[in-house]
Amino acid sequence: MIITKIEPLGKGRQRIFLDGEIAFVLYRGEVSSLALKEGMELPDTRYQEIVGDILVKRARLRCMNLLKSMDKTEWQLRTKLRQGDYPPSVIDDAIAYVKSFHYVDDVRYARNYIESRSSSRSIRQITQELRSKGISEEDMEQAFGQADTQTEEQAILKLTEKKHMNLEHPTREELQKYYAFFLRKGFSYGAVRRVLQKTTGSSWEKEEF
Prior knowledge:
It contains ten helices and three strands, in the order βββαααααααααα. The chain has helices at residues 28-33, 44-69, 74-83, 88-100, 106-117, 123-132, 137-146, 152-162, 172-184, 189-200; strands spanning 3-8, 13-18, 21-27. Strands 1-2-3 form a three-stranded antiparallel beta sheet. A hairpin with a 2-residue loop joins β2 (13-18) and β3 (21-27). α8 crosses α10 and α9 packs antiparallel against α10 (189-200).
């Protein structure tokens, strides 16, 4: 492997390119102590030394620091490590490390996410949000099965209270507004209709709007 480029980054870091490809990032002092220079050949033993003695420890610590403030999914952690130019093998090691202590558990993350948002979001919306965080369909299904959630109608009713909706004598325009609001939130038309018919005494239908 040939060091084809050493690119300065912020905060005293330098990005190392091997054979024209981004390989890893080191601090300037580490580059100096390892005597790395552009154009030199990097023996495999030295590469493994860098990975094992520096990058693996740093990636594990990076994961731990990311998890200090809040729970994260495996996908989110992998994304952060890729942004830091860690090699794939180092990323796999760091993820395996935090998972071995159950610091990362996508089913647990999804279950907590579902329980904390079931009163303000529809199942459809929660599902979309979990997908955007890299939660697999299998883990999501398991999490929904474990979660203590409100029904869709309970969530809608709670939102009507939170938004101080006029449910005693709503006008046609207010009903139209409420209907649009809940559908944008991802609630099913049937659940919205049942809640609003029950709470307002109105027999309104979607077609009326």
